[in-house]
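Translate structure to sequence.
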């Protein structure tokens, strides 16, 4: 049962990260015009997609606190930046172009939903892993020996 729960949650995380990666790759070309001369927004979108893909592959390979935490950081960071750049004109920050865009459109909403799905799945996976660690037979044996 524990393996089924872990794999189900991993599937949820991977689906969310896949949505995130797909939308960023799909939009990268359209946003490549926004550049500081050093880097353009399209490259940043491709980088986000690549990190989301790597995170999803890591979750598929192994469901650990580290891989689930990485998924939370990737998807949560993407969601946070999306919302910040929607509502706040941060401006150009060093080599990062001004990515303020005060509108919602379908692919932006889909990306946010995917990121939030990945965050939720990864947080639940972390909780399950912590509970499993607490109740594992090896841990109870160690605590009995220590007492």
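Result:
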């Amino acid at each position: 049962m524990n393996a089924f729960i872990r794999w189900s949650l991993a599937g949820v995380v991977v689906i969310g990260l896949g949505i995130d990666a797909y939308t960023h790759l799909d939009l990268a070309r359209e946003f490549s015009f926004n550049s500081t001369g050093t880097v353009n927004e399209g490259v940043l979108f491709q980088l986000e997609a690549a990190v989301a893909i790597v995170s999803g592959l890591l979750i598929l390979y192994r469901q650990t606190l580290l891989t689930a935490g990485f998924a939370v950081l990737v998807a949560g960071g993407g969601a946070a930046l999306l919302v910040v750049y929607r509502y706040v004109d941060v401006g150009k920050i060093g080599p990062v172009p001004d990515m303020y865009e005060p509108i919602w459109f379908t692919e932006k909403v889909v990306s946010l939903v995917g990121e939030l799905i990945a965050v939720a799945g990864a947080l639940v996976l972390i909780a399950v892993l912590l509970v499993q660690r607490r109740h594992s037979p090896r841990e109870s044996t160690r605590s009995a020996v220590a007492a």
